[in-house]
Amino acid sequence: MAEDTIDLAPPDAPPDATGSLAGAKLVLVDGSGFIFRAYHALPPMTRADGTPVNAVFGFSNMLARLLRDHVGTHLAVIFDAGRSTFRNRMYTAYKAHRPEPPDDLIPQFALVREATAAFGVPAVELADWEADDLIASYAREIVARGGECTIISSDKDLMQLLGPGVEMLDPIKQKPIGAEEVLAKFGVPPDKVVEVQALMGDSVDNVPGVPGIGPKTAGQLVAEFGDVEAILAAAPAMKPSKRRDSLIEHAEAARISRRLVELDRNAPLPLPIEALGATTPDARRLGTWLDGMGFRSIAARLSLPGMVRGEVAAVASPDPHAPVADAAAEGTPSVAYGPYGLITDADALAALTDEITRAGVVAIAVQTDTTDARRSPIVGIAFATGAGRASYLPLRHEGDLEHPVGPQLDFGTVAEALRPLLADPSVLKLFHNAKFDTLALSAAGLPFPAPLDDTMLISYAQDAGAHGHALGELAARHLGHTPATFESVTGTGRARLAFSRIAPQAAGQFAAEAADATWRLWRALRPGLRAQRSLSVYELLERRLVPIIARMEQDGIAIDAAELARMSADFGARMAVMETEIHALAGRSFNLGSPKQLGEILFDEMGLPGGKRMKTGAWGTDSSVLQTLAEQGHVLPARILDWRQLAKLKSTYADSLVDDVDPRTRRVHTTFQMAATTTGRLSSNAPNLQNIPIRTEEGGRIRQAFIAAPGQVLVSADYSQIELRLLAHVADIPALRESFRNGEDIHARTASEVFGVPMAGMDSLTRRRAKAINFGIIYGISAFGLARQLGIEPGEAKLYIDQYFRRYPAIRDYMETTREFARTHGYVLTPFGRRCWIPGIAEKNPARRAYGERQAINAPLQGGAADIIKRAMVRLPDAIAASGLSGRMLLQVHDELLFESPQDEAAALADLARDVMQQAARLVVPLVVETGTGRHWGDAH
């Protein structure tokens, strides 16, 4: 082999004299798919002259791997020649709403074609035709001439081509896609894919399809009738339903969709197959091109000569807050974690701040003795400016005669050095759980660090529900590294030491490793926000909420200790009465707080069904077990649940809230968890305000203990029936939409629709039943659950639910479509694009899978409500300040915001909150916010 070539491909296999290509294998690369995958997978990168190159680098990497692993006898990369094709003449709306490519991708299209030429691979495109049509035509031609074809793509639109001699390969997963995978995805074999696609449409390409028909329904129809025309012909004879009506009404749209999604296998071939013979690329030409681009790592992997400059030319992105990525940074994960340095003198601190300023990005990990960032002084701070480049600044470590701590800078000196750095807009500060660190810095008198990024929230915005978002778990998952735990440094149990008692050297290695891991996680995770379409959720909601929620935690809320004492006594008396009743139902006395004794009563003595023993041998009696039994109509488990609820409220609130009071502020400061739920909702602890019952007498009593400061009142602003409004929005239910638009009583309207009774003069029992169904449907309630709520037989409850779905079939369609989407993708989307992962949707256990399906149905609604109230929370502080009002937002609980305001400003604040909250999102039905004021939360709510 010549010195300046490299053998990456087998030799050509020319056709024989008859034109046969028997034994030939044509590999077709979906070039457009490669480009966009590379662009979204990599952070911004620029060449030495400032040209964006992240897509070019990723494309070149994939092409190099392809040449090494998957080349046949013939090879081509197929590109789209332009945005307009013959399909736009067929249907003007086709792909019409696709956005223009990002500005930094546009100049890379030409460079990608340069890369293809440098690798010696034919690039094929043809005006007026899509790349998919050319792929279809080449695949037909090679098979017709006795050869085989491999399509390098995971695009669902190409799956219709699979068949004898044609296969697909996912370029990212490196897994083949065949008939089995297509059947799992569409429910039909490859030759029927176009029929399914025509019915379900494609919102990305603006293919209309038939409204209300999702992939599962489309697959069932095609399996039963064969093709679109047969389905449309059979539609008039189908059982009356919304699906039937939609097929008849949108028949022409289905036919147009069929023509749009079917690929043209007779498209002209710009180059004959003979011209696509795979060749070995010219190593000198390829090396020179890679050198000019600065892609040293690719050249090194291919062992190419001629890399004369030997340095990567990629420099920082024009976006100062985007990850700085270069082609050589692939080795970052192999950089050692430590050892790290200590900052113990003013010169070292000055050198550190200079380094941070030059880097423009720094990861910060604040260390305290407790998890209460407001009250625990800062013990030390770790900083990282790159992989392995981290150090620790000890501040308040305490030693003894045997373990002296060594020199530490006084906090005043440190604060003077850090104040300008934290406020410097040109330095991006990275945190993991930024709310904690910023609270600790604020409590120390330091400014709020801006701008900032939070790796915990970056992960949460993409993967809520998929896994936890603690630093250790994310580092293990994304970096292949498990950092030291806090307990491994401080010890556990009685031997546990305060962090301030740990020697600075040991403490510093732990803290600096956390900062180092945060920096690396930011590099690994932030590019995914764009690829996962989670950027707006993160940047417009989650990140902006950090200072707002931190301020809410700082402000806290006052409580009435005397009212709590009265409440505790009352709850205790009621529990005693309930205990007597429960003993009577059980037939003997037992300890209600003993799961073991309760299990013996329920499963050994009463013989109730469904009991399961735990590893200890005792019966399981958690809330899910009791709830299942209660939904089946068993009274004792239902009363146990009631007793447990009251006991929990007594211990969590009536008895414990006084202990949660901060003696310095005389207020309770709950801690909001920003990355704990699947749906984007906030949760809270110490105290947990989300568990206060919303519609019960006990919940009202607890709210009475939360009071305004002297001279102030509390203002409550609560979204009215927001999840039902979102259901009307996403499920296209005309009756519900009309009712909400007209301001009608939605529960009375539902009762009228379902039970056939007039709204005028409707009795409260009928309305209550409709209300229970309305809210129950959102949470996937069973007949047993509804029966328990209404005090009726399960059979009667089932009749109510069946009648509800007959009247509102679009709700059942929404539920089925949502379940199917979750099964296919593993997640569901809120109306605002938040991904809510549903791990249980794939469970083999039927009960756990059913729970996952209920989660999938509810998550878009509950998550949509969370998105809306977060939008309002982001806007309200500025709106309050601009209005000249002095009120402040204290709490967020479910769909409600609670403010504290001077009494003479309360009405104005209520009006402002209502306006901002109602304008937080645009739905097809109006958002309605109800407000109230009072000295305590109960009155305001």
TrEMBL record:
3'-5' exonuclease domain segment(s): 340-530
Keywords: DNA damage, DNA repair, DNA replication, DNA-binding, DNA-directed DNA polymerase, Exonuclease, Hydrolase, Nuclease, Nucleotidyltransferase, Transferase
Gene3D superfamilies referenced in this protein's UniProt entry, alphabetically: 3.30.70.370, 5' to 3' exonuclease, C-terminal subdomain (1.10.150.20), 5'-nuclease (3.40.50.1010), Ribonuclease H-like superfamily/Ribonuclease H (3.30.420.10), Taq DNA Polymerase, Chain T, domain 4 (1.20.1060.10)
EC code(s) of this entry: 2.7.7.7
Domain 5'-3' exonuclease: start-end pairs: 24-279
Alphabetical list of Pfam families matching this protein: 5_3_exonuc (PF01367), 5_3_exonuc_N (PF02739), DNA_pol_A (PF00476), DNA_pol_A_exo1 (PF01612)
UniProt superkingdom: Bacteria
Keyword Protein biosynthesis: no
Residue ranges constituting the DNA-directed DNA polymerase family A palm domain according to the UniProt record: 699-905
GO molecular-function terms, A-Z: 3'-5' exonuclease activity; 5'-3' exonuclease activity; DNA binding; DNA-directed DNA polymerase activity
PROSITE patterns in the record: DNA_POLYMERASE_A
GO annotation (BP), single: double-strand break repair
Catalysed reactions, as listed in the record: DNA(n) + a 2'-deoxyribonucleoside 5'-triphosphate = DNA(n+1) + diphosphate
Presence of keyword DNA damage: yes
UniProt family annotation: Belongs to the DNA polymerase type-A family.
Subunit structure, as described in the record: Single-chain monomer with multiple functions.
Function: In addition to polymerase activity, this DNA polymerase exhibits 3'-5' and 5'-3' exonuclease activity.
NCBIfam families hit by this protein: pola (TIGR00593), PRK05755.1 (NF004397)
Name of the protein in question: DNA polymerase I
Organism: Endobacter medicaginis
